[in-house]
Amino acid sequence: DIEKAELGYINIEEAQRINAQNGIGTEYELSIPLRSGGKLYGFKFRTLRENVGKNQRYQYLVGTKKRDNLFGLTGLRNYWKDIVVVEGELDALHAQVRGIENIVATSGGKLTTELLEAAKGKGIKSVTLLLDNDKAGEAFIKESIVSAESMGMTAFVATLTDAKDVDEFLKNHSIEDLKEIIDNA
Q1: Where does residue 29 fall: left (phi above 0), alpha (psi -120 to 50 degrees), or beta otherwise?
Q2: Tens digits of per-residue pLDDT, 76-112?
Q3: CA-to-CA separations, 64 to 19, 45, 108, in angstroms, rounded
């Protein structure tokens, strides 16, 4: 799964070689290559430490433009006309390596006009929102529906009832369980 997801470990020497900011390679060791539309647009790093605040778990490599890119859009086949949208890259990666090919991530937020334009450019006509089961995710759903519909796309909502996000859900459930939730959006 790690190889399929292209996850990596970065140490302090590698971080210095790429001129990464402080903390990468020491506090943030898990590297996630960010790809969209056939290009690598940056790196996101995650801490492996426990008991870290939500806003302190991730660090982006300076210069990464997450706002303009829909994570995972690269791997979509030309025949996909719908996508499943999650918030986090690890949520999308976990589902991708288990067999859901048309899943992408917003990198932690709502679907913006820029993200939807990128999807529409790949021929996507509908989105299924499977955002985090928390207050922020609920707010993102409402805003994302408005954005998708304003661009002429159909929006569906799928809900996780017993997990915070897709990554947590897949730790205790099968991929078939997740597909059923998506199919019943």
Answers
A1: alpha
A2: 666 678 999 999 889 999 999 999 989 999 988 888 8
A3: 13, 11, 14
Burial of 3 (0-12, 13-18, 19+ CB in 10 A): exposed
Q: In angstroms, rounded to a whole number, what is the distance separating the alpha carbons of residues 70 and 122?
A: 11
Give the CB-side neighbour count of residue 1, counting CA atoms within 13 A: 12
Instruction: Tell whether the model's pLDDT for residue 19 goes beyond 70.
Output: yes
- pTM of this prediction? 0.81
What ranges make up the beta strands (E) of the chain? 8-9, 28-36, 39-47, 58-60, 82-86, 103-105, 126-129, 154-157
The alpha helices in 122-155, defined as continuous H runs, are 135-150
50-65 burial string, b = 16+ CB within 10 Å, else e? eeeeeeeebbbbeeee
- 8 strand-pairing partners: 31
Mode of pairing for the β-strands spanning 103-105 and 82-86:
parallel
